[in-house]
Amino acid sequence: AKQRGKAGYVRFLPGMAEPVLAHMRLGGELRRALDQDELEVVYQPIVALDTGRVVGVESLVRWNHPERGLVMPGDFIPAAERTGLIADLGRFVLDRTCRQLAAWLAEFGPAAPGHAGVNVSARQLHDPGFVAHVLATLDGHGLTSDRLVLELTESAVLRGSQVSRTLHDLDQAGVRLALDDFGTGESSLSLLRAFPTAIVKLDKSFVDGIEIDDADAAARDARQAVARAVVQLAGALGLEAVAEGIESEAQAEQLRALGYCFGQGYHLSRPLSATALTTLLSSRQRA
Ligand code: C2E
Ligand code: CA
Ligand code: CA
Ligand code: CA
């Protein structure tokens, strides 16, 4: 099931029989990637659906692999989680993000993105030093805690007293928590009560096909019903709702009509390098 590439790297094939070995090897490469600066952070704008303003960004990690080219997070985050390297990777993404946000705030003032969202894995929340590290990083870049949003999935926050304490302490410190991929988990609603959530991100699966006027009207209506319920629930609980994965103006239009104020997706902007987003901000929203 395993093949070696030209430099002796294992290629990761679907159904590979040795996932542990694969993860270990990938882990070794990731260690090198971190040490040799092969990782990059790109930023996807979070946009006000009425004005088109970039109100925030989400940080997404990329790996510029010397042989394999661009590697997407879905192909290495699981290995980083299993090998424990997610802690170092997470620190890298947080530090890079804070540095960049501080630079945008300095350059664009109130026209800069107001906050940055960073994805966090379960393992990071189990680290008792996590909160102190987050706050020290913000402070080190001269940022107040309201500039940071930590994006968590349901599986990351399920159970564990250390996780509860971590999330409570972050909330107390003024860092906002977003529930990612909202609506896809089994207990999305009870999580809202159990954790100090500030933002819900409607999963892309409810945005896909939300606008089409085709034979499958029942499926479309069901997605619209979920999208509507989520934004109404958010409103009732005083949370912000962000719709993810918007790929067309028709979808944006539909989400606006349902009551969404904020969205994210290729139609609004792809994830951009720091340089590319700086250019976009210069042309679009310099005061
Ligand atoms: P996510 O947090 O749900 O991030 C959204 C994903 O959807 C990103 O994929 C983004 O590029 C993609 N996306 C955004 N708009 C659209 C759209 O309109 N259409 C489509 N088809 N896709 C869209 P990406 O960058 O490949 O990231 C995948 C996942 O990897 C993320 O899902 C997140 O769970 C994880 N991830 C990314 N960066 C980090 C990180 O720094 N740390 C951790 N722990 N996880 C990360
Ligand atoms: Ca996310
Ligand atoms: Ca998501
Ligand atoms: Ca996701």
TrEMBL record:
Q: Provide the EAL domain boundaries.
A: 23-285
Name the domain of life.
Answer: Bacteria
Identify this protein by name. Diguanylate cyclase (GGDEF)-like protein
Source species, please?
Answer: Pseudosporangium ferrugineum
In terms of the whole protein, what range is present? Answer: 478 to 764 of 768
